[in-house]
Amino acid sequence: MLKTLSWAFNSMAWRGLVYTVFILHFVLVCQLLLLQPLVSALDGKPGNAAELFESVSQNIKVKRYSEALNDLNAAIETDPALSEAYFHRASILRQLCRYEESEKSYKKFLELKPGNSVGEKELSQLRQAQSALETAFSLFDSRDHTKGLEYLDKLVLVFSPACSKAKILKAKLLLAAKDYSSVISETGFILKEDENNLEALLLRGQAYYYLADHDVAQRHYQKGLRLDPEHSELKKAYFGLKNLLKKTKSAEDNVNKGKLRLAVEDYKGALALDPNHLAHNVHLHLGLCKVLVKLGRGKDASSSCSEALNIDGELLEALVQRGEAKLLTEDWEGAVDDLKSAAQKSAQDMNIREALMRAEKALKMSKRKDWYKILGVSKTSSVAEIKRAYKKLALQWHPDKNVENREEAEAQFREIAAAYEVLGDDEKRAKYDRGEDIEDMGMGGDGFNPFGGGGGQQFTFTFDGGFPGGFGGGGFGFNF
């Protein structure tokens, strides 16, 4: 029994030993096959070394930099004196802007190949790119966006075309310069290489946000937050956008419900969230202007519409609404100017033409004499009140009672008489109130002289029921 067990044990041990030898042999064969180009290079077979570097070159073309570096590192580990491997590794690291690692490899290459002009040239380019990248970051901090972009485009991305730091910085500079379309283009290239690049997702989302393409912006923020739910900048951008859309919708809803004062507060609140979001704020300013016009707050409305026009000078509705706001503040000429400009931009819009006609009529009325003001009565005064005011002023300004300032008195008396000529007649007063032209309504000017032709004529007033005494002894009288 013991012999049987011993034999079985020995048999199993023998088979295990054979199996182990087989595995080791298999691994060795695989290593030899996989590292043959490297081993061949060590054996002085230039054809196989050329194949290695051709493989590295192909990996670089398709931007598989990690695979290329792994091959080169393996080659260097196999043959530390393989100078070309150091050169290729240095070049790849330079393109990736891993400058410190790249410089070490260039120096190692130049140790093996002293005075090599190509190596020395690329090392110089590395140092230029490194310095330019540092300068570009400084220019970004100092908000010199144009010069920062020049350093990146003319130096960094020329010598380090695969530098992700430089590409992200370029997108940031373009965003700060408000070149949103270029940001979308640049970040698109980055995301094509790395679809999970959080910084590119954030910058691309911000570009869409500032173009007021909020749905697309939100999708970029959400994708980034799925990858990193605690990313502070993505969270800030995402919730900031949600808050803006919520405020905007609340304002619009309150307008539709007729809650205009609440709408004003919502519009102001939305505008305060991001003063730099011009593509969206232009509509917030316009919405606020329209509500303020409805509330009769002409000055505030005019200011809001001006803000909208400062952003978009071709915004027709803002021009029309500002014209309406100026009518409320009795800025007749300003209203006519705005509405005339709007009518020229949209000649077929009858609503604009009607608004312009109202403004022109108001301007015309503003230039005529205010007979109510001259008599010191309101537009709602009765005929009796107008007559009493006229009597009082006629007596006050009769030239014979104002010998020392006769010329002024005559001018005042003409105005008073002309005002009464219109307001004392129901038909003329109605036409005047409607803004219609009235023949002889300018009788208060040079064409009307209640004193007759001679400047030195004397006047006598005879009121109903008699007037105690007369002014002078002439034969000109007024009957009330």
TrEMBL record:
<dbReference type="InterPro" id="IPR019734">
    <property type="entry name" value="TPR_rpt"/>
</dbReference>
<dbReference type="GO" id="GO:0005788">
    <property type="term" value="C:endoplasmic reticulum lumen"/>
</dbReference>
<dbReference type="InterPro" id="IPR018253">
    <property type="entry name" value="DnaJ_domain_CS"/>
</dbReference>
<keyword id="KW-0732">Signal</keyword>
<dbReference type="InterPro" id="IPR036869">
    <property type="entry name" value="J_dom_sf"/>
</dbReference>
<dbReference type="Pfam" id="PF07719">
    <property type="entry name" value="TPR_2"/>
</dbReference>
<feature type="repeat" description="TPR">
    <location>
        <begin position="83"/>
        <end position="116"/>
    </location>
</feature>
<dbReference type="Pfam" id="PF00226">
    <property type="entry name" value="DnaJ"/>
</dbReference>
<protein>
    <recommendedName>
        <fullName>J domain-containing protein</fullName>
    </recommendedName>
</protein>
<keyword id="KW-0802">TPR repeat</keyword>
<feature type="domain" description="J">
    <location>
        <begin position="370"/>
        <end position="436"/>
    </location>
</feature>
<keyword id="KW-0677">Repeat</keyword>
<keyword id="KW-0256">Endoplasmic reticulum</keyword>
<dbReference type="InterPro" id="IPR001623">
    <property type="entry name" value="DnaJ_domain"/>
</dbReference>
<feature type="repeat" description="TPR">
    <location>
        <begin position="198"/>
        <end position="231"/>
    </location>
</feature>
<dbReference type="InterPro" id="IPR011990">
    <property type="entry name" value="TPR-like_helical_dom_sf"/>
</dbReference>
<dbReference type="InterPro" id="IPR013105">
    <property type="entry name" value="TPR_2"/>
</dbReference>
